Amino acid sequence: MSENGINSKNDFSLFEKIMNLSDDSMIMDETCILHQSVMLLSDKWTLLILLSLMQGDKRTSELLRQIEGISPKMLTQTLKKLLEANLINRKVFPVVPPKVEYSLTDTGRGLKVVLSTLYDWSVKRIGTT
């Protein structure tokens, strides 16, 4: 796999094959892998946290300062969800007071291409309205 998370043109061939299936050969429900991924990323704070961590490793206090409007409780809940989804790492340093840093996993870094494409699409969409 390349560093941006996409192997080649073949990565899109499975999606293209799915889109070309007949209407009755594919059932669409919440078990769809794309639906599950979008639901994970669609949380109010998830993208902002991921974008912040794409800039580099961050401590909780840095995330709270950078992400305007997020409460400590919501940050903690969202970080926990991202940890469970293997999108971020949590590193605890053995110091007093405790120091915790968050960083992206390889899977989380793989979202750079997806989010870059989504950003470009958003800019074009705003330009056409």
Can you tell me about this structure?
The chain is mainly alpha-helical. The protein is 54% helix and 11% strand. The chain contains seven helices and three strands. The chain has helices at residues 10-19, 33-41, 46-54, 60-66, 72-84, 106-109, 111-128, and strands at 58-59, 88-93, 99-104. Strands 1-3-2 form a three-stranded antiparallel beta sheet. The protein is elongated, with a radius of gyration of 18 Å. It starts with 9 loop residues before the first helix and ends with a helix.
Question: Helices and strands in order, then pairings?
Answer:
Blueprint: H1 10-19, H2 33-41, H3 46-54, E1 58-59, H4 60-66, H5 72-84, E2 88-93, E3 99-104, H6 106-109, H7 111-128
Antiparallel strand pairs: 1-3, 2-3
